[in-house]
UniProtKB/TrEMBL annotation:
<feature type="domain" description="SecDF P1 head subdomain">
    <location>
        <begin position="308"/>
        <end position="433"/>
    </location>
</feature>
<feature type="transmembrane region" description="Helical">
    <location>
        <begin position="455"/>
        <end position="474"/>
    </location>
</feature>
<keyword id="KW-0472">Membrane</keyword>
<keyword id="KW-0813">Transport</keyword>
<feature type="transmembrane region" description="Helical">
    <location>
        <begin position="584"/>
        <end position="607"/>
    </location>
</feature>
<feature type="transmembrane region" description="Helical">
    <location>
        <begin position="548"/>
        <end position="572"/>
    </location>
</feature>
<dbReference type="InterPro" id="IPR005791">
    <property type="entry name" value="SecD"/>
</dbReference>
<dbReference type="InterPro" id="IPR048634">
    <property type="entry name" value="SecD_SecF_C"/>
</dbReference>
<dbReference type="InterPro" id="IPR027398">
    <property type="entry name" value="SecD-TM"/>
</dbReference>
<feature type="domain" description="Protein translocase subunit SecDF P1">
    <location>
        <begin position="229"/>
        <end position="287"/>
    </location>
</feature>
<keyword id="KW-0653">Protein transport</keyword>
<feature type="transmembrane region" description="Helical">
    <location>
        <begin position="479"/>
        <end position="499"/>
    </location>
</feature>
<dbReference type="Pfam" id="PF02355">
    <property type="entry name" value="SecD_SecF_C"/>
</dbReference>
<dbReference type="InterPro" id="IPR022646">
    <property type="entry name" value="SecD/SecF_CS"/>
</dbReference>
<feature type="domain" description="Protein export membrane protein SecD/SecF C-terminal">
    <location>
        <begin position="435"/>
        <end position="598"/>
    </location>
</feature>
<dbReference type="InterPro" id="IPR048631">
    <property type="entry name" value="SecD_1st"/>
</dbReference>
<keyword id="KW-0811">Translocation</keyword>
Length: 617
């Protein structure tokens, strides 16, 4: 029988549309203005603090909805925006600098929708409000770090080849290796030149001073800078994930800059603390033969340096680095058998091999864990860039009891909060080169709300114009198209709410408007084809059947080419372009479903299988 779907097909179509609307429902409930409280440097807010917050707000006659733990944070939900800034100020004064008090917008989704994983659309920075950072990578530090690696590699390789050298040090943009005789120098140049093709080796001997210099080629310098930028982007993404920010944007800008956008974050303190921290570890041997009094007075033995513990006590470390934090792949805070805070470290295979090889030959020796961090000095250079200062602190000194492998622990940490913060930074990764924030902007929620209101108005006006036009021009079939249009918008919002990585931006709202128009195009093609079939003398049932089947190929061709364009925009675009591509691709898929299959279900139900003489089209 023409124009009849089996019951199961009708059920599937209705069920899919119903699921789309179900997952779009959380967007109707909006968000509560809220203030979140979290501890600094990884500290947790205790249950007792919640009672103090409730009591303090009650004493100040603040009408709040709730004070509770949500997603690991203390969240105060308020009834209006006017109280938000007031409560933030009150809680900051009450809790002090040990806690971070930040503005937030908390979804007001009912519990039964939460239970099925339904939540509101994630909004981008232009709609949600939040913070924008422009960060610059210190490429000079990246090159210097690469040179330090060269020094360590040259020392190890020359020892393995039994080529004795008098010293290896960095001089400007080169690494200089000194030898005691010319024969060893010639062998070293030949050996290193074969192994390191990305470096330029030059014999710089003068008189009885035999030395060679190694400089990176232009290709190697470019590769080093690119690696530093890409690795920093990856590590910053990891750190943003640790912050728990919904749908952050981390992308490259130019040769040495990174743009970070954190929607919904209004207080930048915690974000700056985690994103800008250039924390890493170095494992060094302790020079136990050094005279501590002489070292404290500035007389440090050759090949060693003076470092300090948190309490200020001096420790003399050998310059040779056993292992760096680059090899750390996992870090978890915990407690040792005496309930003291510790961090459990996991290394990659290369790091595990290095640690095992070194500790095997140094059982009984003392090894120190050196924590390194770059912090702003408050001074600027001639170009206006903030100068960074390297700060070092010996976390612990331990005696190597046995051969270590890929897993071991760091003890001697002052507090559980410091252990948590150290584990977070190491787990997220050590920045390859220091970064500094050169631009910082905060987009307020009110500005984002204006964008939402204007974008929503554009969608409503466009939709209303179509809802009026279609019944006037296509009569009852126009009403069918209107039902499909409304279903299409609901399903788009539902699908975007379900996809974890989807974020609605202002260009994304433009994509929704565009797909609404494209959905109408599909119905127009179908309805015009039905009219043509009727004009050719076919019966109403045949006109409906051939109208849908003959128009399908044309609609598919047009939508597939647009879908391919959306995929290309998503692949090569960034920021606003990518947001537009996401909604366009989803809108094309949903409009094909509602405009063709959805309307066919309604048309079959109203007109299919019946004897009719005329269609209202």
């Amino acid at each position: 029988m023409l124009n009849k779907y089996p019951w199961w097909k009708n059920t599937v179509v209705i069920l899919l549309i119903a699921i789309g609307f179900l997952y779009a429902m959380p967007n109707l409930y909006g968000e509560d203005p809220a203030v979140q409280v979290s501890g600094t440097r990884g500290a947790q807010v205790e249950l007792a603090q919640l009672d103090k917050i409730r009591q303090h707000l009650t004493e100040q006659s603040i009408d709040f909805r709730s004070v509770a733990f949500e997603d690991g944070l203390a969240l105060v939900r308020l009834r209006n925006d006017a109280d938000q800034l007031k409560v933030k100020s009150l809680l900051h004064d009450m809790l002090g600098d040990d806690y971070i008090v930040a503005l937030n917008l908390a979804p007001a989704t009912p519990g039964w929708l939460d239970a099925i994983g339904a939540g509101p659309l994630k909004l981008g920075l232009d709609l949600r409000g939040g913070v924008h950072f422009l960060m610059e990578v210190d490429m000079d530090a990246a090159i210097s770090k690469a040179q330090e690696g060269m020094i360590q590699d040259f020392r190890s390789d020359l020892r393995e080849e039994k080529l004795r050298y008098a010293g290896v040090r960095s001089v400007g943009d080169a690494v200089v290796v000194r030898f005691r005789d010319e024969a060893t120098l010639e062998k070293a140049i030949s050996f290193l030149d074969r192994k390191y093709s990305e470096y330029q080796f030059t014999n710089e001997s003068q008189g009885d001073q035999f030395s060679l210099s190694a400089r990176m080629t232009e290709a190697k310098l470019k590769e080093t800078r690119e690696y530093a930028l890409q690795q920093n982007i990856t590590i910053i993404r990891n750190r943003v994930n640790e912050l728990g920010v919904a749908e952050p944007q981390v992308q490259r800008q130019g040769a040495d800059r990174i743009v970070v956008q954190l929607p919904g974050v209004q207080d930048t303190a915690r974000a700056k603390e985690i994103l800008g921290a250039t924390a890493t570890l170095e494992f060094r041997m302790v020079n136990t033969d050094a005279d501590m009094r002489a070292a404290a007075a500035g007389r440090v033995p050759p090949g060693s340096q003076l470092a300090k513990r948190a309490d200020g006590s001096p420790v003399v470390l050998r310059n040779q680095v056993i292992l760096t934090g680059d090899h750390i792949v996992g870090a978890q805070s915990g407690f040792d058998e005496y309930s003291r805070p510790q961090v459990n470290i996991s290394l990659d295979s290369q790091g595990g091999s290095k640690m095992a090889a070194f500790t095997k030959d140094n059982v009984g020796q003392s090894m120190a864990t050196l924590f390194i961090e770059y912090k702003p000095t408050g001074k600027k250079d001639a170009d206006g860039k903030t100068l960074l200062e390297r700060q070092e602190e010996v976390i612990n000194v331990a005696t190597i009891q046995s051969r270590l492998g890929r897993s071991f622990r760091i003890t001697g940490i002052d507090s559980p909060s410091e252990a948590q913060n150290l584990a977070l930074l190491l787990r997220a990764g050590a920045l390859i080169a220091p970064i500094q924030i050169v631009e910082e902007r905060t987009v307020g929620p009110s500005l984002g709300q204006d964008n939402i209101d204007q974008g929503f108005l554009a969608i409503v006006v466009g939709l209303l114009a179509l809802l009026i036009f279609m019944p006037l021009y296509y009569r009852k079939f126009g009403l069918v198209a209107n039902i499909a249009l409304i279903a299409n918008v609901g399903v788009i919002i539902g699908v975007m709410s379900m996809i974890p990585g989807a974020t609605l931006t202002l260009p994304g709202m433009a994509g929704i408007v565009l797909t609404v128009g494209m959905a109408v195009d599909a119905n127009v093609l179908i309805f015009e084809r039905i009219r043509e079939e009727l004009a050719d003398g076919r019966s109403p049932q045949q006109a409906i059947h051939y109208g849908y089947s003959n128009a399908l190929s044309t609609i598919s061709d047009a939508n597939i080419t647009t879908f391919i364009t959306a995929l290309i925009l998503f692949a090569i675009g960034t920021g606003a372009v990518k947001g537009f591509a996401v909604t366009l691709a989803i809108g094309i898929a949903t409009s094909m479903f509602t405009a063709i299959i959805g309307t066919r279900v309604i048309v079959n139900w109203v007109w299919g299988g019946k004897k009719i003489d005329k269609l209202s089209i």
